[in-house]
Amino acid sequence: MAIALKKWEKENLAEGNRYTFALIFCEQYPDVAKEDGLKPVNYRAWVDFNDGLYTVWRNNGDKDFFDINFNYCGTKEY
């Protein structure tokens, strides 16, 4: 299910802004963020952006992928 993004959020996500992604992620997935200690202030440690995809590095080693519209694209489990 797609979420309604504000114009500035869409623009920032399209530009690869990892901090904006972290803000949205922590708001949309508060249980996951709390469980893994993911906070917007430490986004550099758990969010990457490459080739139009955001990667969320989870504490268990898994990686979750999202596109620039914050659509979930899948998980790579380790």
Which descriptors would you attach to this protein?
single chain, 78 residues, alpha+beta, 3 helices, 24% strand, globular
- DSSP helical segment count: 3
Mean pLDDT: 96
Percentage of β-strand residues: 15-25%
Q: What's the N-to-C terminus distance?
A: 25 Å
- Estimated radius of gyration: 11 Å
Biggest sheet layout: 4 strands, antiparallel
Give the topology string: H per helix, E per strand: HHHEEEE
**Poorly predicted runs:** none
The beta-strand count equals 4
Helix content: 25-40%
Q: What would a concise description of this structure say?
A:
It is built from 3 helices and 4 strands.
Structure report:
By secondary structure, the chain is an alpha+beta fold. It is 33% helix and 24% strand. The chain is built from 3 helices and 4 strands, in the order αααββββ. It has a 4-stranded antiparallel beta sheet with strand order 1-2-3-4, covered by helices on one side. Strand 2 and strand 3 form a beta hairpin. Helix 2 crosses helix 3. The chain is globular.
Tell me the layout of helices and strands.
Layout lengths: L6 H8 L3 H11 L1 H7 L10 E4 L2 E5 L5 E5 L4 E5 L2
